């Protein structure tokens, strides 16, 4: 088996590459025209980026904080323009725009508002997911409408979803810069997966033992506590860290020598971009959008898990290689997935749809 290790970027200066001129988390900017936008808190990292745009974000909130009423985040630092909105107040909230993210939200929003989306109030559907079932002929829920644009988060998704009559756009992810924190002092590899036992092959959970044979793993995320026992792996090979607050997880990840991203069928895990921005070198399963996100100098991308395991081992053995590759990874992530670019792209779509 031939293993291709990443080539560090030539003459990379840490002080230059680790600096950021992009937005950080917690402070929203002021848009040219402030809109009132109704959207559900579905994906925490994406919503964190979006609410930094400065528009008044009306977040449905219910007493149980269930999937249709999470409201403001409790583990992220969100600006004040993100506003909890009880269901009973949504009808009088008068949004300029509704952002849909799940199929059932169309009927739910129309019931709560008493208005028809696409006719009485503009709407946009953000598609976070890769298609399922009959790929590549899977029909999108909005495919038979031309009055609600579909915004994809990756070009891969735009290519593989059949959106029919619906206008489509691509706005790639934006991530608030967590800052360069990498130390690599802990000779273990970090992995972030949410609900890995339930999602299994989608998240590449089945690949963890192959990686753990070569390097010890620390698994972070929601629903990870039972994973080591499921595989019968001792803490020396796989440890679970259950649902840490985002800031604490970033601090822990930055101490790990490298980051592994085994996800098989997801759009593009934001945890990968966050790890790169923290300064970690990465080894990434080469599916969906991965090859676009990780240039050669930033890490290893392969569809062979054994190649990823060997790349991680190389980072563990050579700290200079790990530092140089991680520095290049941070620079690449800031260039492509900076928050300012994301918000600029969204402002153009929002102003167009509501004009």
List the helices and strands and how they pair.
Elements: H1 14-18, E1 36-39, H2 44-51, E2 56-61, E3 82-86, H3 87-90, E4 97-100, H4 105-113, E5 123-127, E6 150-152, H5 155-160, E7 168-170, E8 186-192, H6 196-199, H7 208-212, E9 217-221, H8 227-231, E10 238-242, H9 246-255, E11 256-261, H10 270-278, E12 282-285, H11 290-293, E13 299-302, H12 305-317, H13 319-337, H14 339-354
Parallel strand pairs: 1-2, 1-4, 2-3, 4-5, 5-6, 6-7, 8-9, 8-11, 9-10, 11-12, 12-13
Helix pairs in contact: 10-13, 12-13
Region (Disordered): 1-27
Organism: Nocardiopsis sinuspersici
Protein name: Glycosyl transferase
Descriptive labels:
single chain, 355 residues, alpha/beta, Rossmann fold, 2 domains, 6-stranded parallel beta sheet, 17% strand, globular, disordered N terminus, transferase activity
Report on this model:
The strands form two sheets. This protein has a seven-stranded parallel β-sheet with strand order 3-2-1-4-5-6-7. A six-stranded parallel β-sheet has the order 10-9-8-11-12-13, with helices on both faces. It has 14 helices and 13 strands. Strand 9 (217-221), helix 8 (227-231) and strand 10 form a beta-alpha-beta unit. The protein has two domains: 36-174 and 339-354, 3-Layer(aba) Sandwich (Rossmann fold), CATH 3.40.50; 176-337, 3-Layer(aba) Sandwich (Rossmann fold). With 355 residues, it is an alpha/beta fold. One of its GO terms (molecular function) is transferase activity. Keywords: Transferase. Residues 10-23 have a biased composition (Polar residues). Residues 1-27 are annotated as: Disordered.
């Amino acid at each position: 088996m031939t293993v291709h290790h990443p080539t560090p970027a030539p003459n990379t200066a840490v002080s230059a590459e680790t600096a950021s001129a992009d937005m950080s988390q917690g402070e929203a900017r002021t848009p040219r025209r402030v809109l009132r936008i109704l959207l559900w808190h579905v994906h925490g990292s994406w919503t964190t980026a979006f609410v930094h745009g400065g528009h008044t974000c009306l977040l449905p909130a219910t007493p149980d904080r269930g999937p249709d009423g999470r409201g403001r985040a409790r583990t992220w630092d969100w600006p004040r323009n993100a506003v909890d909105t009880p269901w009973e107040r949504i009808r009088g909230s008068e949004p300029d725009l509704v952002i849909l993210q799940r199929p059932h939200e169309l009927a739910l929003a129309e019931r709560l508002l008493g208005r028809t989306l696409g006719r009485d109030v503009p709407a946009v559907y953000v598609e976070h997911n890769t298609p399922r079932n009959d790929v590549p002929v899977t029909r999108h829920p909005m495919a038979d409408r031309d009055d609600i644009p579909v915004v994809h988060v990756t070009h891969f998704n735009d290519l593989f979803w059949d959106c029919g009559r619906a206008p489509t756009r691509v706005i790639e992810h934006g991530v608030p810069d967590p800052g360069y924190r990498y130390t690599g002092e802990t000779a273990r590899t970090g992995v972030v997966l949410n609900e890995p036992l339930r999602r299994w092959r989608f998240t590449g959970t089945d690949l963890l033992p192959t990686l753990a044979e070569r390097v010890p793993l620390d698994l972070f995320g929601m629903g990870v506590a039972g994973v080591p026992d499921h595989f019968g792996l001792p803490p020396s090979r796989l440890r679970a860290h259950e649902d840490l607050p985002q800031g604490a997880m970033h601090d822990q990840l930055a101490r790990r020598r490298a980051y592994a991203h085994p996800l098989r069928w997801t759009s593009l895990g934001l945890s990968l971009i966050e790890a790169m921005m923290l300064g970690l070198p990465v080894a990434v399963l080469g599916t969906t959008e991965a090859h676009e996100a990780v240039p050669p100098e930033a890490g290893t991308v392969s569809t062979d898990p054994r190649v990823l395991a060997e790349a991680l081992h190389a980072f563990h053995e050579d700290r200079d290689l790990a530092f140089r590759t991680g520095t290049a990874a941070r620079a690449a992530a800031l260039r492509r997935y900076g928050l300012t670019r994301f918000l600029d792209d969204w402002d153009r779509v929002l102003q167009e749809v509501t004009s």
